[in-house]
Structure formats: C-alpha cells, structure tokens
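re: ur question from earlier - yeah i can do the single chain one, its not a big deal. heres the input i used so u can compare w yours
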Amino acid sequence: MRAQWWLGLSLMVSGCGGSDGFKEAVPTRSTLSVNVPGSSAGSSTGTTGESQQALTGQRATFYTATRNVTLMFNGGVGGFLDGIEHILAQPPSAQSATHAVWGPSNDALATANYKFEIEKVAAQSYVYQLSAKLKGAPDSAYQAMVHGATQVVDAGHSTGDFHIDFDVARQFDDNTMDQSAITVHFDTTGYPHQLDIVFSKADASGTTSNDAAYAYTENADGGGTFQFVSPSDVNHDGTPETLAITSRWLASGQGRADVSATGGSLGGKQFGAVECWDTSFARSFYDENGDPATLEGDPKSCAF
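and the output i got, formated as tokens:
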C-alpha cells in the first residue's frame, strides 16, 4: 500500500509557528489499528483461502487468516497515518486561527508538488486534504488525493472519515496500488470502537465497485470482532470466489470464525465452515461442509 507519493508527506516545507490546535484533526496510527490478540509465533497458513490446514490442537487456520489480514492493513494504512503524524510534528508553512498549510514540497527529483491543509470548520470539527499538482502547473491544478473530516471529542476520542483516491494519485506517481480508492470510517467516541474500511476498484469499462470490505469493533476489555469480505481463490483453481470471514474473540484471545465462500467455480454451491480456538489460538473445534465434510473437536469449546 505504500507508494512514492506517500513519501512526499515527509518532504513538506515547514515554516514558522506551531501546529497546536490542529494535531487532533487527523486520526493517529494507534487510534486506527486493528488489534487481534496474538503472539510472535509463526503462522500455520498464509492465505485466507486455505481450509483444513490446521488440526485440533494446532494453530487455528482462520484465526491465522484474520491476524494476517489485520497486520497487512495496519502496515498499509498505518504507513499513511505515520506520514501525516510526521507532517503535524513540523511547524506549518502558513497558519491562521482556522487554517494551516504544510508545503508545498519542492523535491528536486519529484515530478509533482504536494501540500497538506487542515481547516477548522467549527469547534473541534476539522476537514483536511493532501493534494498534488505537476511541477510547473498553476496552483489551480492542485487535485486532492486524500480528503477527510474529523469531529474531535478529546485527545483520545473522535469520529470521522477519510478517502484515499489512487486514481488521482496515479497522475503524479504510477507506483500505487491497483485499487481505485480506500474509504475509511472510524468512531472512537465510545465502546465498542468502530473501524470500517472499503477498497474499491475500477473494471475495464471504468465502472468502480467495492473490491473488499472490512469492519472492526473493539470492546473496552480488548475483545472484539473483525469481518472482511474479499476475492479469494478458495479452490486454488485460478477462479476467485467471494470469501467472507467473521471472527470474534474474548479479551483472553479465545475466539471463533464463521466462514463462507460463494461464486467463482463453486457455482450454486456455498462453502461454509466454523472454527473455534482456545486462549493459545489452537483449534478446538472445526465444522466444514466441504467434500468430504469435516467435523472435529468439541463445539462446547467455542467462546460464541
């Protein structure tokens, strides 16, 4: 998810003055992290489409899939948010009571200029954008690659949305994701905390549709849920199906995943599975309607 224009975030030209009063306008990496219980132990699988990899007592397959996806998300969107935090740690180039600007950047080897702006539109309410233009183009040519809005309650609690437009970003740097955009909604004003992410992608005709979607909630005690739907070649035959996984866990780490796959080479069939794991993330129960069907472990071991 990291691209060259991401790096432009660290190249903003700073000036005099401070950015206090604007630092809470953008969520931090820690605020938007997806926190699934886990350890540094190795994974038993590496993809979401591999079922029946684990046996009872071994590392749970769909727990591993859930954790791998969250680590990928945290590294990608987190890298972007780290860049924003770096900007906000620097004095802005220009600032008033309601507006602050960082940049424009002027990297000699870059093909574009970048700038980041925050506008205070009401008490504790902000809008912001990262924009770019090709070098030599007039200021009217700036286009927003990222834009967002945040309503702040206090330093640790806020709600808002932001949108990353890769179709615009590709005009200034072709080293970007193949998705068209990412849209994020977050709400940390109370429990459960909520984080929703949608990846969209344009087809050959230019029609944009959702490519993958993620929904995360976090309880005050560390328990939570993570749901994601994305294309995945469940049968390993070159044809992607639509895979949906809903994982739930307690503060202890004990949890359950409900899995379904449809479309692709499955035709009118629907793949379904339930997997439960214990506090060490080892499979304690598994039920799959595959061919042949699989049933192992004790359903009473499930936390949900």
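Helices lie at 4-7, 61-88, 166-169. not sure if urs matches, ping me
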